[in-house]
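ARCHIVE CARD
CATEGORY: sequence design from structure
SOURCE FIELD: tokenized fold
FIELD CONTENT:
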């Protein structure tokens, strides 16, 4: 397991160097927006966002190799889901439609952005694979209050 961790760390380090070049060049394209068409600007922005997501994935590899810790921050879950929708729709393909429902007034959560993005990505890929004939993936944000599970000492109400 230690050898796998070292390998993951080495790959993540090299990959991060490549991402720096990609992100830098895409950012330069965005700076020169006045000479770019709207389509080029949109694609440049998508490159920057994809490079940021890849950097988060790199962080996860480094975390796995025990070289970096999780970095939870206060974030708006609706914003994270909204940023991921273009990528998720491309991954789902034409046969699976994506619907996002955002809860109004959602409180901030303490989480690692890269981990949340990875969870969304994994769920989308699994959903696509589970719907080979096509279908609809609905992502909904919201709050939920969880009640404690009844124990052996707690009487369970029985239906009449």
């Amino acid at each position: 397991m230690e050898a796998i961790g070292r390998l993951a760390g080495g790959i993540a380090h090299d990959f991060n160097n490549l991402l720096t070049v990609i992100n830098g060049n895409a950012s330069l394209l965005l700076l020169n927006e006045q000479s770019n068409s709207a389509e080029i600007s949109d694609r440049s922005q998508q490159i920057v966002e994809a490079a940021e997501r890849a950097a988060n994935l790199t962080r996860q590899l480094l975390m796995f190799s025990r070289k970096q810790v999780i970095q939870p921050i206060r974030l708006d879950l609706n914003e994270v889901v909204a940023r991921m929708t273009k990528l998720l729709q491309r991954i789902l393909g034409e046969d699976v439609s994506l619907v996002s429902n955002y809860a109004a007034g959602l409180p901030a959560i303490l989480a690692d952005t890269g981990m949340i993005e990875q969870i969304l990505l994994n769920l989308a890929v699994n959903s696509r694979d589970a719907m080979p004939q096509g279908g609809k993936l609905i992502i909904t944000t919201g709050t939920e209050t969880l009640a404690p599970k009844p124990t052996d000492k707690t009487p369970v109400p029985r239906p009449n």
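CARD ANNOTATION: The chain has a mean pLDDT of 79. The chain is about 55% helix and 10% strand.
SHELF: design records, drawer C
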